[in-house]
Structures are given as C-alpha cells and as structure tokens.
Amino acid sequence: MTNWLHTLLYPPRCPGCGRPVKRHGTWCSLCFQSVWHPRIIDGSRRNNLDGCYALTDYRGCIRRVLQQIKYERKFQYEAACLYLLSRFPWMRDIQLDIAVPVPLSLIRLQKRGYNQSEFIFRSWAETFTVWSDALQRRRATQSQWTLSRPERAKNVADGFSVKYGVRIQGKSILLVDDIYTTGATMESCAHALKKKGVARVTGLVIASGAR
C-alpha cells in the first residue's frame, strides 16, 4: 500500500489521545508534554551498569502504548516509539559500539513471537551502530512486575550470559529495554557483559517510574 493511500485510509492520530496529527507516530503537544521526561535515572549507576537513560515517565498514555506493544501485538505503535527516540537529547554523549537488547527467555519468546525491546529499538539503533543479540537468558525467570524489589534482584541474579562466539571485549554497549523499574534486570545483564570484558554498559529505556 502506498504511503498516500495508507494515510487516506488510516489518517494519522496521536497515539496518546487520538487527536489528528500530521504524521503517523507523532504525539500531540499535550500528550508529549504529559510523558516526556528525558533523564539519567537516579541510582542507575551501579556496580556494572554505567547509568541508564529514560525518555518518559511510565504512566498514562505511554504505559498503555508499551503494554499494547508487549501484550497485544499493536505493532502500529512502533512509529510512536521512534518519534520519542528521535528526540533523545544525549545521543552524542554516549560512547557506544554495539546496541544490545535485554533478551526474553526462549519459552517467552516462542510464546510471544517477538522481543518487544528489539521491535522498539532495532530499526532506530541500526541507523548509527551495530545491533547484536549478544545476550541470552540462562534460565526462565518469574515476571518482575509480580515481585518486590529484593525479590526482583534475586529473580534475575546471574540470569544472563553472553552467547558463545560473540566478541565484545573492550566494547561500549548500549543496553536497551522498554521499561526500567528497579534496575535489577539491567544490572544483571550488565554484569554478564562486564564478565566478558565489555568496557562500558549504558542503558536506555522508553519509560521508567523511577526518577
């Protein structure tokens, strides 16, 4: 379907409120201002993770958009995430050689059919760096949202490893995920990467409830 015909049949609307907008994926000014909060998350610099950036607050319309991508296969919201990523203000400040997504377990990947982090970030990341599925889950873990902060850290502790044959020694990694809550998952991923000689691991997420 050509772009003009697609636009005619499916007029672009704000992913937050449904108001008409100029292009698919564009947020209206009110919805954008309600969620846009780019920052380095307080407390995200840890033993292995060298800080994590978040673009928005995990609430309201952005929470709904991410949940619909993750659980309801609403792939039309990819453009809405790319709109936010294109406005990430510190891209030039990040040292990176490779972008790596937080992986799903094999069971969850087979059930869902896709990794939402790859779906959201890959096309954007490949415009300026190398994409690599360098990480794998060593074991299935319980869904983090059901757990307390200490339980989350225990749940993912030593839960990731670098895939056999992947060469990442001395590299700077951009570790991407959809949501940052306590940071336990990203810290565990960063630990696995640092064990294999990675020089730096910087996180980037679409949304976080942490300040």
Automatic annotation (TrEMBL):
> Double zinc ribbon domain: which residues?
7-35
Span of domain Phosphoribosyltransferase: 168-203
InterPro entries associated with the record: ComF/GntX_DNA_util-trans (IPR051910), DZR_2 (IPR044005), PRTase-like (IPR029057), PRTase_dom (IPR000836)
TM region positions: none
Report the family membership: Belongs to the ComF/GntX family.
Q: Quote the protein name from its UniProt record.
A: ComF family protein
Q: Which organism is it from?
A: Megasphaera hexanoica
